[in-house]
Amino acid sequence: MGVLNVTPDSFSDGGRHDTVDTAVAFGLQLRADGADLVDVGGESTRPGAARVSADEECARVVPVVAALVREGVRCSVDTMRASVASAAVSAGATLVNDVSGGLADRSMLPAVASLGVPYVAMHWRGHSADMQTRAVYDDVVTEVVSELSARLDACAAAGISSVVVDPGIGFAKTAEHNWALLRNVARLQALGPVLLGSSRKAFLGALLDDRPPVGRDAATTALTVVAAQAGCWGVRVHDVRGSADAVRVVERLRQPGGERLGA
């Protein structure tokens, strides 16, 4: 899943793709680099970010989704709002990626059920403005699994048939919480398909002596290898080519044959 932020304030690439033309050009590049989905978002969810209006979010996202779909690009929409999800799916998006897992908008789960598209439910404890104050756990893995399980129950009750879970790396999590979740992907997979979104995040920067976001792609690709080896459903990344190459290597290693050649 390639990240396409149509925003002025996202932590890594805010402002680089904030017109329809630049966003579409980048979405096409993401597809060429190996993205199976281009995830289009119009609201930054970085720590401390302020919310935008639903109208502004729609204005950013929907024209980009529609233009990319016309070019044959499979798109998902990254939103916490049912109205934006509905408009984006009407424009051709085939998946809703909701970082709030349906908690930010009570209309989201019924809307996704009526749209009939797959849904990504992320672990979430609150909006960006104060989410890091909620990074308090006795056992982060057990609690994230339990809270995601509750979201899955809510999705099932709403009638959503296809759900992917996301542990919410960096969302109401410290660096140690993130590493604990990444060490325990198997426990997350007991819930169902797993999406990991760790690309360029601050805990990688801290590991790399406070390296800025654009210098964290190799570390992100290393985590893509971990995710692919663990059998995760997908990864959400900025540098699609590096992660797509990593996935191809892991898949090739799984294929039998060649061991006896030349024997």
What does this structure look like?
- The structure is a single chain.
- This protein has helices spanning 20-33, 54-70, 82-90, 108-115, 140-158, 175-183, 185-189, 202-207, 217-230, 240-254, and strands spanning 2-5, 38-41, 75-78, 95-98, 119-122, 163-166, 195-196, 234-235.
- The chain has ten helices and eight strands.
- The longest helix has 19 residues, at 140-158.
- It is 44% helix and 11% strand.
- It has 263 residues and is an alpha/beta fold.
- It has a six-stranded parallel sheet, with helices on one face. A two-stranded parallel ribbon has the order 7-8.
Instruction: Order the strands across the largest sheet as they lie in space.
Output: 1-2-3-4-5-6
Average pLDDT level: 93
Rg from Cα:
18 Å
What's the number of helices?
10
The SS-based structural class is alpha/beta
The overall strand count is 8
Helix content range: 40-55%
Poorly predicted regions are none
**Topology pattern, helix = H, strand = E:** EHEHEHEHEHEHHEHHEH
Largest sheet: 6 strands, parallel
Shape: globular
What share of the residues does DSSP label as strand, in percent? 5-15%
Distance between the termini: 41 Å
